């Protein structure tokens, strides 16, 4: 496996009175595509700059493959950074931009030519070698920046919001390209973004950050389906989040790995009694947070004909339907004026059932398996 293991231990960094990072610890595996995700000001770029060597932490450790690199300058860390603004030399051609570091090292011209051609082919720019940056689209400029970073054969590629200057469709295309490039070269990628969809799309694992802390580390599936905090649940995609009190707990089954599953009844002032399965042991009377994603909820004009006792069922009135082509988002108002968001995918035209309109009376249903207890409060 190419790339390097990156281990960050107890890193803190302040700028005056502002704490950018608070005792952050993190292990990134060799060859992993790892994302640092969070809102502006959460500390993700500061952490990336510390890994790159552009900032020094106030305290903490940083190792690459077990070697302490904090004392090393950026050019000796076997890392390279791709910036948001491309940082290309406008007076040089694409070829000359990519070849720049090799020329500084006085690499033989024949070697420079073959190596640059290899990396231009990797980023699919082999037909644009003689163009100047001003003649390129934003996506092409970013691919030149990636080729220029990769030609130094770093063991870790650091990407700081590399797609934020691109429009939505081009971002999606470049995400696919980045994933392909990572698969081809196999080094460690550390990707900084505030865009949840970007992070979920390409990451092997990601860390969700806020106010200088890491709130959760996991695969995209784990982060989305099992958020650790209210902030993570709200920040990653859309969700319906409620305060609740545990009303009843029943043991359901114990899995082969020893994990026990419980059927839990929650009392939620806005919804009534709601059932949810959980592997976290909770007690009657405890205060918790409960979440259910909009796409997990089934909306219908007719009462669902089911005898399953694990189905939650509530009624409401459509307050606002928002059609967006591939889906419709419904804002449904319950009897006590609470708004619940529901997303209905448009998979098959003939399978849509009765058309649901503004002010229609509807039923909302979801399985106890599709809800989640996010936080257990003291």
Task: Kindly describe this structure.
- The chain is an alpha+beta fold.
- The protein has two domains: 6-235, P-loop containing nucleotide triphosphate hydrolases (Rossmann fold, 3-Layer(aba) Sandwich), CATH 3.40.50.300; 240-376, OB fold (Dihydrolipoamide Acetyltransferase, E2P) (Beta Barrel).
- Helix content is 22%, strand content 37%.
- It has eight helices and 20 strands.
- The protein has helices at residues 44-52, 94-104, 109-122, 138-150, 168-185, 196-202, 220-225, 230-235; strands at 6-15, 18-28, 33-37, 59-64, 67-68, 79-82, 156-160, 188-193, 205-210, 213-218, 240-254, 260-268, 272-278, 287-292, 298-300, 311-323, 327-333, 339-345, 361-367, 371-376.
- The chain has a six-stranded mixed β-sheet, sandwiched between helices.
- Helix 2 packs across helix 3, helix 2 (94-104) packs parallel to helix 4 and helix 3 crosses helix 4.
- The longest helix has 18 residues, at 168-185.
- The protein is elongated and about 75 Å long.
- It starts with 5 loop residues before the first strand and ends with a strand.
- The mean pLDDT is 91.
Which keywords apply here?
378 residues, Rossmann fold, OB fold (Dihydrolipoamide Acetyltransferase, E2P), five-stranded antiparallel sheet, 8 helices, 37% strand
């Amino acid at each position: 496996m190419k790339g390097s293991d990156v281990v960050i231990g107890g890193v803190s960094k302040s700028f005056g009175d502002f704490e950018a990072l608070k005792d952050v610890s993190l292990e990134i595996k060799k060859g992993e595509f790892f994302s640092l995700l969070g809102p502006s000001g959460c500390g993700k770029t500061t952490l990336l700059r510390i890994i790159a060597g552009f900032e020094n932490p106030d305290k903490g450790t940083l190792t690459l493959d077990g070697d302490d690199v904090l004392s090393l300058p950026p050019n000796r860390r076997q890392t390279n950074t791709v910036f948001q603004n491309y940082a290309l030399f406008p007076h040089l051609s694409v070829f000359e931009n990519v070849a720049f570091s090799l020329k500084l090292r006085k690499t033989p011209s024949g070697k420079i030519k073959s190596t640059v051609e290899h990396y231009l082919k990797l980023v699919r720019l082999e037909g644009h070698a003689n163009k100047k940056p001003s003649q390129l689209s934003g996506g092409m400029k970013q691919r030149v920046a990636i080729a220029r970073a990769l030609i130094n054969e770093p063991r870790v590629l650091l990407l700081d919001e590399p797609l934020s200057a691109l429009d939505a469709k081009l971002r999606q295309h470049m995400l696919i390209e980045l994933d392909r490039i990572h698969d081809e070269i196999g080094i460690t990628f550390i990707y900084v973004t505030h865009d949840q969809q970007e992070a979920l799309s390409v990451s092997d694992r990601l860390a969700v950050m806020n106010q200088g802390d890491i709130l959760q580390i996991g695969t995209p599936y784990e982060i989305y389906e099992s958020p650790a905090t209210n902030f993570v649940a709200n920040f990653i995609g859309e969700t319906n989040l409620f305060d609740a009190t545990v009303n009843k707990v029943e043991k359901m089954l114990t899995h082969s790995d020893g994990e026990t599953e419980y059927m839990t009844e929650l009392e939620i002032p806005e919804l009534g009694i709601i059932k949810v399965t959980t592997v976290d042991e909770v007690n009657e009377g405890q205060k918790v947070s409960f979440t259910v994603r909009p796409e997990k909820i089934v909306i219908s004009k007719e009462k669902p004909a089911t005898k399953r006792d694990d189905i939650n069922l509530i009624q409401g009135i459509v307050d606002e339907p928002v059609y967006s082509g591939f889906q419709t988002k419904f804002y449904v108002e319950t009897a006590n004026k609470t708004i619940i968001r529901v997303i209905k995918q448009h998979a098959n035209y003939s399978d849509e059932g009765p058309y649901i309109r503004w002010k229609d009376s509807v039923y909302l249903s979801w399985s106890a398996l599709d809800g989640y207890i996010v936080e257990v409060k003291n």
